[in-house]
Protein 1
Amino acid sequence: MPRRKTRLNAAAPHEQVLEKYLLKLSNSELFHDPERFPKMSSASWFGNDHPMELEVGSGTGEFLCALARKEPGTNFVGIDVHKKSLHNAAALASSFALRNIVFVSADFKLMYPLLAPQSLHCVYLHFPDPNVKRKFRNRRIFSERFLDEVHRALVPNGRLSVMTDHRPYFFEMLQLAERDQRWSKGHADRYVVGFEPLAKSRFQLRWERHGLATLRFELIKASAASTRGGIE
Ligand SMILES: C[S@@+](CC[C@H](N)C(=O)[O-])C[C@H]1O[C@@H](n2cnc3c(N)ncnc32)[C@H](O)[C@@H]1O
């Protein structure tokens, strides 16, 4: 199945909507001087002490906005690099008058220094770009470094949810995760087929329309060890 880019034609939301729901971080400043940014926390970003969850590559925001509507006592952060998707997500959050969500325009790989230790209850990586061409493989988000950083940022027993329709990428991610002894699985089977959230994301809907199964695994932060072998 070719992974063509589809166009989002919606007009940019009103300036006030973008001000309220979209935080733009400069990738160049994140790269050169990450210390100038405050750590991402409920206190600094939402002015409260509620639990916080994060979606990496939140796309057009359907999944995260549905969670934010259901759980007003939790803060949600969606990070993406694609401007039109972020505009769409901000407009959706505004249409529900959500007060517990913000979308961030930034490359997540540059945001690692902003992740505060034990600050996140859940991280979602849903339908990450598989970057199938060899020359683009280094753009993939899921890696040993990603697991290290997410592990550090999660609270004890915090969850990392990963899913995709792309079977080869899925099994590569699963194998990498299974070599890392700091996690347990959130399900009895090795992985799960299908996912029925409150709202399916744009990409889940798209690939299921094409008859491709959604493959998912959920990791639970089982140990406080900072190294993959589990020995500090
Ligand atoms: C296939 S889409 C999936 C979007 C959404 N999770 C969904 O299920 O519909 C992958 C998303 O990841 C974003 N993305 C890719 N690399 C990224 C990075 N380094 N940092 C943040 N977002 C990224 C893309 O812009 C795109 O919106």
Protein 2
Amino acid sequence: MNWLDGLRAKILFDEPLSRRTTLRVGPRARLWVEPDSLSDLSALLKKAKSRHKDYLVIGCGSKLLIKKKAVALAIHLNSFDFKQCRIEQDELIAGAGLSLPHLLKTAYDNGLGGLEFLSGIPASLGGAIMLNAGVSWPARVEIGELVRELKVIDKSGVSKTLDKKSLRFGYRHSNLKGYIIVSARLKLLRGRKKDIKLKMKEFLDYRRRTQELSYASAGCAFKNPEGVSSGRLIDLCGLKGRSVGGAAISLKHANFIVNTGKASSSDILALMDLAKEEVKKRFGIALEPEIRII
Ligand SMILES: Cc1cc2nc3c(=O)[nH]c(=O)nc-3n(C[C@H](O)[C@H](O)[C@H](O)COP(=O)(O)OP(=O)(O)OC[C@H]3O[C@@H](n4cnc5c(N)ncnc54)[C@H](O)[C@@H]3O)c2cc1C
């Protein structure tokens, strides 16, 4: 008898995580589980806890590099219950499994602005909140500023609501470790649809001009140290175009490490180590990974 018997969920065995991460690398998940509802997620976490099974939550996999040989249990919020979205005046309440493009479209359709800076980020709402996704152009702005309330569930399968006062967001960081984000209430701004559309276009155009979008990546590999861009430091070390196996440092944006086709997790890690070493040697600055290395 399987320990997941009775759970309402989509379950896949030996799922290649290279299909589930934007870097297109990774081992297999022995179990890939998409629970049907919050109560099924809770039941899954309770079962996993009683069997001492560790799990990894995967959203759109756009910030993940998995170096482990295998993942025992991957949890993905992909069912209808985790992708719902509704508007209450100028607030948007959405499931954590919703993709940012869908979220932005709903906000736009309802004349709500404030999310435009997230245009072009290939994330789920849950992953974006966990890592406080944002941009630093033309000024620093992050999704955490918009969060009014979160519904989360802990490792024991107990759900609770966290209000704004208990949330702490920093640069690509939140105090939500140990929780799975289930849904969020975001405070937006009423605006004219044509202005919202124009803003979204400006952010997308900037992204297309400056970022490497032709190859698989996880966005910026390193956080920017105070007052300086990691891409600039890596570029000044002459590393643009440098490759290890199938991984390369983008010629367009030196903080993007790309999979040119057949990279492995270790090729990408080797390039990250090289960039860290060279930047440390030349500038005395220790780069901190932005990519979540598991
Ligand atoms: C081309 C490209 C451009 C990008 N541009 C930007 C950018 O401009 N700004 C920016 O901030 N990021 C950017 N990113 C990175 C990425 O999209 C963000 O970091 C995003 O927040 C990751 O969301 P995800 O759903 O893909 O999370 P994943 O990569 O799946 O997971 C990231 C982390 O969040 C956790 N997690 C995911 N979902 C949940 C949940 N529901 N509850 C709890 N934990 C969860 C995971 O366990 C993991 O630790 C870019 C990526 C790419 C590929």
Protein 3
Amino acid sequence: MNFVGHLKTVLKHKWQVFKLSIKAGIPLRGLMHDLSKFSYTEFSESVKYYQQGKRSPIPVAREENGYSKAWLHHKGRNKHHLEYWYDREVKEQPIIPFKYCEEMVCDKLAAGITYKGKEWTKEFELEYWNTKERDRADTNEAIKDFLTEVFTQVSENGIDKTINKKNLKKIYDKYCNKTNNN
Ligand SMILES: [Zn+2]
């Protein structure tokens, strides 16, 4: 039955991402989002370590095996993850293109909404980002600043006022496109 449970969680998450991606002006990316979750490698591990849809099975697989096959498969194929772009050979991590940053924002918000359900508040993502993700994220500082400002705006003004292409582009340009601006 974990098969059905996990399928529901994935579809719920994809639906949330899709709705947000329409607001962000990237409906096609929203539609294609996380398709690799339907691959055997990702799906089978996530069914095995299913957490009743309350949290991701990936950390549980890591605890059990020392690594998550699903995650390694996923991050190598999905450009909306910071980890896709991480390259230990470069001095400074790259600036991730705007469309994937938009998808990343939709993904992170949707994950919170999916896992938290009724307990989700507009402050949730900023709190989560600041306490659990920000310091450890191996990415360019400009990308961190972009995400911090987006989630700050969500916490202050809500999703509808923050998540639209114009506003996201403005924030992206402020931190990630400095050279193009002047
Ligand atoms: Zn993903």
Protein 4
Amino acid sequence: MRRLAKAIDGLDAPAVEKIARDQHEDPFQVLIATMLSAQTKDAVTAAASERLFSVARTPRTMLKLDVKQIEGLIYPASFYRNKAVHVTQTCEQIMTRFGGRVPSTMEELLTLPGVGRKTANLVLILAHGSASNICVDTHVHRISNRLGWVSTRTPDETEHALYVASQKKWWPFINLYLVTWGQTICRPVYPLCPACVLADLCPKTGVERMGKPR
Ligand code: SF4
């Protein structure tokens, strides 16, 4: 983790991390941007979030938009139709059940439509300052297994295994470090192992072909 901390310095941070920093860790914008980011490229998430937040930055103002308007603003995010419905339903729940505030516990966050553990963990870390959560997305799942930190089949299994396999001081940073590394070096296909700062430590579990650094 120390090597990764140095190596990612200066690389582009993931879209939701940037939104969280730019918006002073606003829980609502972190929540919605994370919902939009599922299976969507970072550049698309950033642009979709910017368009949506330029029109509505709170659950109250978001509810003045209809689902079609939200669809139009977040297109071409993957599953934009489902995501638009979930954004509207989540805003309704935040207003009716949580007094207009994004909840700050895992149990409550998981009751919101379209919110799974990945989204809930990221909101808890980036917007509520939690040091007790690990957010596992596809990059964290893949790289933790390649590195031999865990041996798991699903992101949920990886999250639970990482609580055992890693030191607590790193938990809030695992997502930032591994997602940044996964977007640049430890890519899903043809990872750039010869250019990786972890190459001498990494068993490269499951890596069949490596890419060539330019
Ligand atoms: S050595 Fe290769 S497989 Fe291991 S973390 Fe680096 S890029 Fe990924």
